[in-house]
Amino acid sequence: MKYPVPEKQIILALSNGDERAFEAIYGQYFQSVYLFVQGYVKSPDLAQDICQEIFMKVWDNRERFVKVLSFRHYLFTLAKNHTLNHLRSISRSNVSIQELLRYYPLEEQTTGNSIQEKEYEKFIQRAFENLSPTAKQVFDLCREKQMTYDQVAKEMGFSRDAVKKYMVQTMKTFRSLISGPLDIHFCVLLYFSIDYILFK
């Protein structure tokens, strides 16, 4: 098959396993998908890796395309979902998130987005209900009242290490409760909350 040809024909050829059709789709869409993904993750290297994974999924799922009405819509929906799922995994990896934060604008790290901050607060409230009474009290003093571990230890009659142990366990609980795709602002807010609490 010669290219260029109508995209519907390329998609049909792709669904039948035509590697040249895949190369044509890759060449046509890679840059726009890359820019779309980079808008979420900021890091050029990370965006490149995620894009490669997205197009691998395109190839793996090629037989489905005969039933897809809009390939472009399918591709960018796939790109968004895959990117957000990747960000969810990053929120559990200090190494990966350091790479992400190298490129994430400082003003977005610190001020965030008001809608996402509200979602973050809702998550904190839901997660809070899963804590023991003592862990709730420790978390409230550390986070809401901005007290240091030493101050909380004195307030509650615990050792500093005991207070920190409660906070470490609380953060593990929060991470275990994360489900569904997370927006980049949410990941950053959660990371900085954990970073602040655990290393204060």
What spatial form do the alpha-carbon principal axes imply? rod-shaped
Name of the level-1 CATH class of the largest domain:
Mainly Alpha
CATH topology of the largest domain: Rna Polymerase Sigma Factor, Chain: A
What structural class should be given to the helix and strand makeup?
A: mainly alpha
**Which segments are poorly predicted (pLDDT under 50) over 5 or more consecutive residues?**
106-112, 194-200
Which architecture of the largest domain per CATH?
Orthogonal Bundle
CATH superfamily of the largest domain, by name, is RNA polymerase sigma factor, region 2, helix turn helix motif
Tally of distinct domains? 2
What would the average pLDDT be, to the nearest integer?
Answer: 75
Keywords:
200 residues, Rna Polymerase Sigma Factor, Chain: A, Arc Repressor Mutant, subunit A, 11 helices, rod-shaped, disordered C terminus, transmembrane helix, sigma factor, WH-like_DNA-bd_sf, RNA_pol_sigma-70_dom, transmembrane
Describe, in plain words, how this protein is organized in 3D.
The chain is an all-alpha fold. It folds into two domains: 101 residues, RNA polymerase sigma factor, region 2, helix turn helix motif (Rna Polymerase Sigma Factor, Chain: A, Orthogonal Bundle); 82 residues, Orthogonal Bundle (Arc Repressor Mutant, subunit A), CATH 1.10.10. Helix content is 76%, strand content 0%. It contains eleven helices and no strands. Helix 1 crosses helix 2 and helix 9 crosses helix 10. It is rod-shaped and about 75 Å long. It starts with 6 loop residues before the first helix and ends with a helix. The C terminus is likely disordered.
